Amino acid sequence: MIKHTEHPDLEKKYNAIGTPFLYLDKQKFLSNLAQMRSHMSKLGTPLRPHFKTVKSLDALPYLIDSIEDPITVSTLEEAEQLASYGCKDILYAVGISKEKLLRVELLLKRGMSIVVLLDSMEQVDFVNAYCQERGCVISCLIEIDCDGHRGGVSADSEALIAMAKSLGKGLGNFKGVMLHAGESYHCKSREALNQSASNEVATAQLAAKRLESVGIYCEIVSVGSTPTACSYTNTSGITEVRAGVYSLFDLVMHRLGVCTLNDIAISVVSSVIGHNKSRGQIFVDAGWMALSLDKGHDEQCYGVVLQPNGQESQILKVVQVNQEHGILEAASGSEIDFECFPIGSRVHIVPNHACSTSAMHSKYYVFDLVEGQIEQWQRVSGW
Amino acid sequence: MIKHTEHPDLEKKYNAIGTPFLYLDKQKFLSNLAQMRSHMSKLGTPLRPHFKTVKSLDALPYLIDSIEDPITVSTLEEAEQLASYGCKDILYAVGISKEKLLRVELLLKRGMSIVVLLDSMEQVDFVNAYCQERGCVISCLIEIDCDGHRGGVSADSEALIAMAKSLGKGLGNFKGVMLHAGESYHCKSREALNQSASNEVATAQLAAKRLESVGIYCEIVSVGSTPTACSYTNTSGITEVRAGVYSLFDLVMHRLGVCTLNDIAISVVSSVIGHNKSRGQIFVDAGWMALSLDKGHDEQCYGVVLQPNGQESQILKVVQVNQEHGILEAASGSEIDFECFPIGSRVHIVPNHACSTSAMHSKYYVFDLVEGQIEQWQRVSGW
């Protein structure tokens, strides 16, 4: 339970919010943003923040400096809301389907520069056909697979060249390549993570070079994931880096070593509703509806409660969830001090994965412990 | 892909809805409701449907016959929305916390009969104290643990008697007992399920009998879960049965043997956005944001796509999900016929767990294949 001791008024407001709710520590959030900006600035590569994590227009002024700045989205709903806000430069980073092209065209007509993603000749063909039929130009990135974790073509494939050429001939406009090192989330060591980051960059460089060798220029060479973004040492030839989770951070990022526990800016505030002393369990009113079912890298944990001293060795783990119930147990080898968690008291559950836990909530309760203020930031939802 | 062949207009509307979206087959939904009603009617025990699964006021007229009918909720937000609709008889089936009592009192003042749940003397004490201070009467059920899966006191415990007595002395009003056979979701055989159902009923009967022996009458003896509700053969002494998933059904219920695949009324409609023929994978635009991360009883599956013939032996499984991507592979031993799933085509992903998959969506697209009509049913969200 966080005590807002410096600000009694804030503590009162905090206690008046019904549990469970999503708590965002604004100063941590701002610090995470500043840290990534500083890192990117040293690398000399622009950041294209991924909106899919925070997914709130209220947070946008902190994520980007100006509405001209580039941003990444995971849904057209996000793109449309950002367009209404005035944003100009969007990358829609999920493979395009034919039925979504009309909405892309409407965004273009609103003056937004939106780039779509594809990795198959079928997609190239229907984008070209759509542009031909409608008399519009849709800019495309080709997804390159760097580690076998999602879609994408090989950087050394003939398909890459053929697709880029075909886009050039049609009205689909080839803009460059995009990579996402999905493997980075599963790295078990700092070395593996550095290797994943280098591999992502090297694969991007290879793809761009091969295209260049046949006279096709990549205006965009886009790489990224929070773990690799935190790990690049050289981004030569890369035009932009995408990352989303870095703004909030979570237990998965902590276990990868790219943030400290103290950097994690969000938690789910929950009330203790029961004790089972014989089984060593505490029941809280946050189940999967508030936490999500994301177990991150720990198959027995839906989030953790840090003890007041913040030591991980004394954490409680959410070991089981129902829709609106969570069950906490002490981390192995330790016992729960039930007096620290009386029925009716509150706990802050730190999530495994910021994106999936935040997605269970319609808004953030944003606490600024320096300014002593509280805000509500609404989240964008749907597709 | 469902073909609405009888209704070309419906097919057109279906194709105009952007993927991913939540599809509800209204006739299957109605049939599931009718089946449970008939079963309960034979048992002679009233049903108190759990609103937490469908969670839509638009669906309510089908779930209950009249606003006087009993209903179960998992959040106070549900209760408040049901109160606005005019419902009169609510059981809030999650352990009460002190901070929620004001909202309960406000519901009582609106003329609703709302019953709360508790399982500790601490909760009895703060409910009594609240009622004393505010001059109100809050009706309570005591949760009985029948299989060690969640909260609750033992049916044979002294705590049960002490809590019921203490509620009787204070202004907290003792109404009866409530049980939920959490174990039933994990049963591996029909026998185990029948055993779980009998145990739930027998434990409830024991609790009520023990209370009666000390002169405390249980007006409500509430049991339920969809698996046990489908399995009761005798509900003597039981005043009501709670169930939620039965209205939609899902793969977990199918694997438990309480529904057929054809009974499952919901699916997530998704577009094929890529093929990886060498890995035998299909990429779709439904990730965990549309499907949830619920793996049900299958650690390698976030939902299945039934082949047009509906045979489970030819299903595709969603073996991996990112935020907005899903990866399908053929069930073991078979190969994907990629020509059946061209890029741009649609698949219906049947969920492991109706509650958690539906919770990822703000609304249902409800298709009535008999009437040839489509509706949108909004879901209640938040707490």
Automatic annotation (TrEMBL), chains A, B:
> Which GO biological-process labels does this protein carry?
D-serine catabolic process
What this protein is called in its record is Metal activated pyridoxal enzyme
User: From the UniProt record, which GO molecular function terms apply?
Assistant: D-serine ammonia-lyase activity
The answer to whether keyword Nucleotide-binding applies is no
Query: Which residues are the signal sequence here?
Result: none
Q: Which Pfam families match?
A: Ala_racemase_N, D-ser_dehydrat
All residue ranges annotated as the D-serine dehydratase-like domain in the record? 265-368
What UniProt keywords apply to this chain's record, in alphabetical order? Lyase
Q: Which family does the similarity line name?
A: Belongs to the DSD1 family.
Is the Lyase keyword given for this protein?
yes
